[in-house]
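User: What would this chain look like folded?
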Amino acid sequence: MSIPKINSDFSLDEKRFSRDINKDLSIDPDNLDEALATQASLYAYYSLRFQEANELKAQAEFDYERVINELMITVREEMVGSAAKITAAQLDAVVRTRPEALEKKNNFLKISAYRDKLYSIVRSLEHKKDSLISLAYKRRSELESMANSVVYKRREQITGLEE
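Assistant: Here's the prediction, encoded as structure tokens.
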């Protein structure tokens, strides 16, 4: 597994964001050294993607609200000429069903879902880090136990020879 390069070129195009997430989140107990070496880079990579998605979501929300406000003004001006009275709820319903508003809302929802996926990955990487620490501690304890056992046996052999 290679350490991913971090760049700020972010797109919602799934083909451009093509990491093997299952591989990034898995732990090979036989290769803890590599997992430990790449964990920080993976966390930084996905955290950066998550922050970029937050920025995109904020921009999409702003764009949606801007279109809604512009449409409110336009529709209200259109309704002024008509004899029918329109309530605020009716005006809101008309505005939010306009194609421009629906397009911006769809974009906002798409980016929000993508951001939520990245959030889940970042959280999973935090759990992976905790698991790696636990596995590394366990492996260290096993190695110390084996080393102590070898030292003890060697000490017995040496002491047995002296007598």
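Residues 1-13 have pLDDT under 50 and may be disordered. If you want, I can go into more detail on any region.
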